[in-house]
Each structure stands twice: as C-alpha cells, then as structure tokens.
Prior knowledge:
Blueprint: E1 5-6, E2 30-37, E3 41-45, E4 64-78, E5 84-91, H1 95-99, E6 131-135, H2 147-161, E7 165-171, E8 187-188, E9 193-197, E10 200-211, E11 214-220, E12 232-233, E13 236-237, H3 241-258, E14 270-275, H4 281-290, E15 300-305, E16 313-315, H5 329-332, E17 333-335, E18 349-352, H6 353-360, E19 363-366, H7 369-372, H8 382-387, E20 392-393, E21 401-411, E22 414-424, H9 456-468, E23 478-482, H10 491-501, E24 507-512, H11 516-528, E25 533-537, H12 541-550, E26 553-556, H13 566-572, E27 576-580, H14 583-588, H15 597-602, E28 606-608, H16 613-629, H17 631-642, H18 649-664
Parallel strand pairs: 3-22, 6-7, 6-14, 7-11, 14-15, 15-19, 19-20, 23-24, 23-26, 24-25, 26-27, 27-28
Antiparallel strand pairs: 1-2, 2-4, 4-5, 8-10, 9-10, 10-11, 12-13, 16-18, 17-18, 21-22
The chain binds adenosine-5'-diphosphate-glucose (ADQ).
Adenosine-5'-diphosphate-glucose (ADQ) binds next to helix 2, strand 24 and helix 12.
Amino acid sequence: MDSLQLHPLLLLHPRASSPSIRQLRFPSPLILNFRNVNLRSFSAHAGDAASHDGPFAFEEKIISHPKDDRALVLARETDDFGYLVGFRLIPESGLEEFMSVPHAIASSGEVEKPGIAVTDEAEAKTRVSHNICFVTAEAAPYSKTGGLADVCGSLPIALAARGHRVMVVTPRYIHGTAEDDKFAGAVDLDRCTKVMCFGGAQEVGFFHEFREGVDWVFVDHPSFHRPGNPYGDKFGTFGDNQFRFTLLSHAACEAPLVLSLGGFTYGEKCLFLANDWHASLVPVLLAAKYRPHGVYKDARSILVIHNIAHQGVEPAITYANLGLPPEWYGALGWVFPTWARTHALDTGEAVNFLKGAIVTADRIVTGYSWEITTSEGGYGLHELLNSRKSILNGNAFEENANVTFDLSLNLCNLPLLYSVQVVVGQWITNGIDVTEWDPACDKHIAFNYSVDDLSGKPKCKIALQNELGLPVRPDCPLIGFIGRLDYQKGIDLIRLAMPELMEADVQFVMLGSGNPIYEDWMRATESAYRDKFRGWVGFNVPISHKITAGCDILLMPSAFEPCGLNQLYAMRYGTIPVVHETGGLRDTVHNFNPFTEESKDESTGWTFSPLTKESMLVALRYAIQTYNEHKPSWEGLMIRGMTKDYTWVNAATQYEQIIEWAFIDPPYC
Length: 669
Ligand SMILES: Nc1ncnc2c1ncn2[C@@H]1O[C@H](COP(=O)(O)OP(=O)(O)O[C@H]2O[C@H](CO)[C@@H](O)[C@H](O)[C@H]2O)[C@@H](O)[C@H]1O
C-alpha cells in the first residue's frame, strides 16, 4: 500500500481530540504532500515509525488512488496579534505564490529563513527562535543538590546552540565556602529592582555571566547568603524558603523586562520555563500580576516537574505575603484531607505553589506524566494533573494509546474527511553534559579511558578501592549507589537486601545524603561489613565521578524516577546499571537476556520489576554471574552503553516542539 508522506512540519496538537477544525492548530504551513492519494478520503495512522520530529510519530496508511499526484498545503491563518483564526488549503499550483507572502510566519519570534521547499523530501527550513527564560533554584555548576541542577545547567546551553536566546535566572548563593568561587565570573549588573511581597518592597540585585551562549542571571539577596545548601543546613530545611523562592519568582519575572543583556532586554515575548515548586509562582504572576496590566500578553509559561514530592506547601495565611491579588487565592489554595490534619482545629487550608503552576501554566512537562496522573504517583495532585492532561507533554496518555480524531476540510467546495490516528506515548528523556561526564577526559577520575581503550577502567576501580580503604580486589564485582537518601531512591529496598547481598562475594559503595535515619544506617552497615561495604555520607561531586568510573555495577532501585541521570552517567562510563523498571529508567536501560538476538544488539543493563527485594536480588545475581563468568557479554554491555547518544540534542528538539505548541494557543489564563 502506498503511503501518505506527511511533511515533518505536520505537528498534531495534543488538544485535538474532537472533530472541530478550530482545535487543530499547526505552527507553520502544514504540507500534506502525497502521491497516489484519493483526495476525497484518506486516513493517516500515527504509529511508532522511526521518523519523528516531536512527541508524535507517524506511520501513514492511506487509500490510494493511482492517478492523483498532488500536494496540498494547510496553512495557518492568524490575526494581527498572531492568534490562529483558521486554516487555508492551497493546491500545489498556488503554492509558490503563497510562500512568497510573509504571513507564513510561525507563532512567535522571528523567522530566520523563510521559504519551504515543497518536495517529497521537503525539509523544514523555517527556524523560529524564542526568548527563553529558565527559572530554577539550582543550576550546575553554580549550585547543585540533584538532577534539577544538571538539567538547568545543560538544557539551556543546548537550546542556545539551536539559535534561541536563553537566560537562566537562579539565586546567587553565598555559603562562605570555596564553592562561592563558582560565581566569580558573574558581574554585578548594578540594576537593583524592588519587588512587592512580604509586606513591603524587597530589593534584589542581579549578577550576570555570559557563558556558552547563555545569559546566566543570578538573583542577589541577603537571604541567599548563608551556610548550607540551597534549601537548608545541618539544622534542617530553612524556615524562610517560601520567602526566598517567592523573591526568585518575582525577580525572574522582572529580569526580561529590566535587564539589558548584550545591549537588549529580552522583552515581553518570552517563554518562561519554571522548574519545580521553587519557580512555580512564575506562571501565576504572569496571569495575576502582569497580564491584567497589559504586560506579558505574548509570554507563555511551561512548568517542568522534576520532583512532585516537593510542592512548596505553607499555611494559607501566608498567601497575603506573596504579592498576588486576593482574588487569585483559588489558584494556590489547597485543602489537606482530614486524615492529614494535625489537630482538631486544623482546617487543613494551605497554599501550594506547585498546584498554582499546574493550574496556570500553558504547558506541563515531566518525564513521568503517566505516573503522576495516578493516585499513587500524584502526591495529591493527580486529579488536577488529569484535568490538564491535554497539555501534559510526555507520557500523558496511556502508553501506546491511540487517539483518533476527524478533520473536516473543504477544498474547492468538496468536503473531505481526514481521519487521523496518533499514538501518544513518548516522553522527554534528558540528555547529559557530555563534556562534564566523559571518561576520556574526566579530571575527577584517576585514569581516563574510552570505548577504544578500556584499560583505564579497572585502574579506576583499584584507585577507588584504595581511596575508600576497601580490600583491593580487581576481580570482585563492585556495586555502587549514588543519590539522595530518601524513599524515592529505593533505600528501603537496599537496606532490606543488604544482609543477603553481603553474603555474596561482592563489594558495595554508597554515596548519599538526606534522611538522617538512612545516613546512620549507612554508618552502621559500614561498621558491620568493614571489608565489603563503604558508605560516604555527604554530597561530593568528585566522589560521584570516581564511583561512576570505578564500579562495575550501578544499582538504582528507585520507587519512581521521572528520568534519572545516574544510569546515563553509568552507561557512558561502562558501568552496568541494574534498575527498577520505572519511568525514565525503564526507558533508558534495556534489559540483557543472553538468549535473544535483539538483546545482544540493544541491551545495556538489567531491569527488574516488581519493586521487591527478591526481584532486585535476582537481577543483581544475573549481573554478578555475567560479570564473573561471561566476560565477552559483559564487555558487549559496556560498549553498547558507552556508545549510545546522550547529548541534549534530542531533548532540546522536543522542548522546542512543546514551546511551539505553547505559542500556538493563547495564554491559558
Ligand atoms: N551525594 C551525592 N554526591 C554527589 N552527587 C550526587 C549525590 N547525590 C546525587 N548526586 C548527583 O545528583 C544528580 C541526581 O540526579 P537524578 O536525576 O538521579 O535525581 P534527582 O532525584 O535529584 O532528580 C530529579 O530530577 C531529574 C532531572 O529532571 C530527574 O532525572 C530525576 O528523575 C528526578 O528525580 C546526579 O548528577 C547525581 O550524580
């Protein structure tokens, strides 16, 4: 059967689930370019074809008509403000004329290269650049406590490299340690700005560094200058975090308007990427504080959820401090269920920052969007998230679900019916910073190595055993764990399994900080198994590189994992991941089964499910046995992992797609 060739620019809007043409929007001229098609009726089936420029992939199926050989263009019609008002179908003959008219402009930003080649292999020549403003509590290398920092340190650079103007707004933390030198390259912009919140005008300053094509903007305020990490110190979480991150959000909204970076402000036509609860006031501020006064009417916002367990919940009375109009209370208002209330007079009323962003952002991005729409994974927000499913990009619909809709068009007064089926089920997999995490030139590890010369890897293992005071045993499988010590990372499972695991001839090293109960358990386990176990309590980036390079196996029994970065680092370093089959871990680690051909080509580690001690130990036993007895298979796993593409290019392209979609719709509120 002949196939309908859909132009790469065919981007199906996730809201498009009804037959109404008004709900189908395309960011630029949609070219239906096909041969041998019955123009009166065809259906396109979207499947898991290899060619995809965004979260949708198309595998086409049509009713053929041997005599037709034509192209149609479906063009957006926009009003003076750039809003979509309709579509136009243009037969191939009229195409040249149409393309010479400047209304083929995408939703936002400037068109760098107008003109689209209309051939069967037509490629998108139109590049739309956006002004993008990341708002985040951490960004590597300036500040880091977890994966949020890695993403906000790398993704902006990848987007800037694709032609966008990108700024990252994050606090200028001064802890009074050598770490503060990381901000040494940032200069004071001498542009103090007053933001109204917490009972008065709060003055914030801005520091700036232009690095790798990105404007790194650091919000300066005395509340960011104190010992500890971004969120707390040895006494626990800071009590004024709501104040500190309210300041960050207000300052971030001001930055594109007031900061002249490289001679120009970013201006109002901005795309805000608000990360986690710390930046969640941004979409609310756009809607409640700025738009009613005609500012940021052309801006859009995307909420990126890295960790739904933290939502920025504080007593309802604090709403008055946030610098928001009283009538917007409902956006943040939150009522705890009765069982979660602490005493008889507790009404359960609170404000929830993350909820505020969920109900106001134009798009929501997260790696584990299916999980968070369930009561188990939604941490109380699942119903709200379900209500915004249509803009939840990623695995929003049941995996491999088919979404079918009809598109009625009218060409030369002939009614056409297009039935289009889309498979939705792809999420954004993070990339990694391949220069920071490269075994060939990593400065933190004792010996460098690469896929062409693996000789440095066993030397790194010996160096690690030496450094940690473990018996130096090059042939003993060394298992590693790196991560926050909390429920998400599956520490309970490791604790349960440790006695049995320690009976095997293995060594185990853990690096992590977090829950003091787990920290104490690590110390106690080290005392109990002096010759087999080491637990490094703390946050230490050089040690994390050494463990990644020196171990043979990296264990990640995460209960849930939106994406996960450590398994990607491990694979790049020839360290084999053993992971719970969840979220991004399931997506990035391919299970090894020596009895299937496919596995020999694809596999990069072991995955286990369900999340039980028994299934984790089974997977670990397979890994240990393969390490001990099947060296060629082990080397195959290492090489496959080391040669995979971990760059940010793919993720950046998907983010671009979502940004495009965000600009197609009017602001959500
Ligand atoms: N004690 C320690 N010392 C040194 N380095 C340490 C460390 N503990 C952790 N790290 C580092 O912190 C990062 C952790 O990243 P992850 O993505 O694995 O988890 P996290 O839960 O923080 O991120 C959340 O956000 C990211 C980004 O979206 C998602 O990938 C993830 O699934 C989600 O839970 C890694 O770079 C790791 O090496």
